[in-house]
């Protein structure tokens, strides 16, 4: 039996253990140490996880895809059921099935079973709701116990990232850790040094923690609502009265955790009724095509890909030729910023809250350590660096720093 560090992320998951006094993330899908937090249920067949799950869905295999599973923690969705083939299962059981597969793959790669886990968690599962936050952690603890972990504890994700960064720190410094993930943005201010790294108790070195439930999937959502959903009818007028087409369908279609809500006969009937009274029925026809074909996740993947391409190359496009020949949504960096700049500002505001909590001014921060996929967005990075303009900027392992730090913590707690 062994202890592991588990970073169950909104977008990706890692699991690691310490071998020969070094933390090591285990391969979970082929040679990949990261595995997308996705599960696909083909009818009458065992569930498929990770990249394989998304490939099955994109290739048109019948079944149900679920992604960004972590986002239901702290929401009412956790206890709701969703249709999977001929049965209905709770979202908490979906998470359990996914993590069961991850645990089994990690144990096979390590050649040992894991009975102890340090789970990563955001600073806030739920903003401004301590009771909801506690419920979310407790639910994740119950899920971990149900899949075979006998000893379950938690560590804040930015603290875990700090433990990874501290491996390269030689002189004492104060670091601001920014972990901008798929579902949350988390910050910690931590006192670090090589000597402190060896200490088992680090409570006095943690100067501040704060976070907000905004992450990469929120950027995807805003981008989708701003560029794609208007092509499907969002904001278009109804024939009678000074009202627009109901927007709930579009918000669900743009939100990873809500897409599956649309896949039922009642929703299709409702969309048909909307079409009859819409001033531009051809747009609602496009919406109907997406929902009837259950291609909402494909659309979300296209938006995510265009976001990444735009952040890297300055422009991207989303081909909707499968909806209507020649239909495309083009995105440039200006559009990306226009639709998502408010989110970047709200994330960066937490830096001021952390500094106030720590009783420090911005010039006291020696290093800004960045991890998480959304730190790759130029306007997010600019907003973060502006908060501590004199700090040295250090880029961590985008998807592995938190998992590595959790692995270090797991070894300490098991010693």
Automatic annotation (TrEMBL):
Recorded family membership: Belongs to the heat shock protein 70 family.
Protein name per its UniProtKB record: Hsp70 family protein
Pfam families listed in its UniProt record: HSP70, MreB_Mbl
PROSITE patterns named among the record's database cross-references: HSP70_3
Segments forming a coiled coil: none
Tree of life domain: Bacteria
InterPro entries referenced in this protein's UniProt entry, alphabetically: ATPase_NBD, Heat_shock_70_CS, Hsp_70_fam, MreB_MamK-like, YegD-like
Subcellular location: Cytoplasm
Regions that span the bilayer: none
Record flagged with keyword Nucleotide-binding: yes
Taxonomic lineage from the root: Bacteria, Pseudomonadati, Pseudomonadota, Alphaproteobacteria, Hyphomicrobiales
Main location: cytoplasm
Keywords: ATP-binding, Cytoplasm, Nucleotide-binding
Keyword Cytoplasm annotated: yes
